[in-house]
Amino acid sequence: MRIRWDEIPAGGLFFSVDDDSWVPGNEVVCQGPGVCAVSLRKEGGRVLLAGTLRLPVVLACDRCLDSFAYTLAEEFEVVFELLAKEEEAGVASECFCKNSDLDVVYLAEPVVDVFSVLAQQVYLGLPEKRLCSDQCLGLCPECGANLSRCPCDCARGAGASPFNVLAKLKAQ
Ligand SMILES: [Zn+2]
Ligand SMILES: [Zn+2]
After folding, report:
1. Is 141 found in the same domain as 91?
2. How many CA atoms lie within 13 A of 109 on its CB side?
3. Are residues 132 and 154 in the same domain?
4. Which residue in 47, 68, 91, 101 could disulfide with 86, CB within 3.0 to 4.6 Å?
């Protein structure tokens, strides 16, 4: 969804995004429809985009590899500015840091790609550590059983600790 700056009326543009074609499918699997609202308004020579996003997704647990439901909830604000001609040519780069408190995106042409902003929010909103639960016990290093669901017998035998595994290796 590309919106030209001259399509934004003086009072701003408000809309909700109902389809999920923008969701980066290689990164997350959607589970049901999301709720996403975006506003665009012009201010001076810039365009401000503000939005909220709620998206139910399915992630894979880092420990046990099971999939689990997660809801991405993001609130975001992005400022778009146009590159001056000389900046476009890569001459000046100073102004790239003048708005360090705000998320500023510099554009070569006055067109905002709303879907790419939304996709970016998904990347930013994903948890760094993805766990089905804080108590997830992960997989048994010996037999690969999911220890949260069906504890295996390995822990009761001699092969339970990594030191025993080491000892075994040394003995061979
Ligand atoms: Zn897990
Ligand atoms: Zn096991």
Report:
1. no
2. 5
3. no
4. 91
CB 107 within 8 A of CB 69: no
Ligand approaching nearest to the C-alpha of 135? 1
Distance 64 CA to ligand 1 centre (A): 4
| Ligand with the closest atom to the CA of 67 | 1
State the distance from the centre of ligand 1 to the C-alpha of 63, rounded, in angstroms.
Answer: 5
Same-domain status, 28 and 99: yes
Output the pLDDT for position 11.
95
pLDDT tens for residues 138-168? 999 999 999 988 889 887 655 445 565 566 5
Residue 104's DSSP bridge partners are 79
Same domain, 24 and 85: yes
In terms of domains, do 55 and 83 share one?
Answer: yes
Cα of 149 to ligand 1 centre, how many Å? 10
Radius of gyration of the chain (CA): 24
Whole domain around residue 113: which residue ranges? 2-136
- Three-state DSSP class for 82? strand
**Ligand with minimal distance to 147 CA:** 2
Q: What is the pLDDT of residues 56-106, one digit of tens each?
A: 999 999 999 999 999 999 999 999 999 876 555 554 444 444 445 668 899
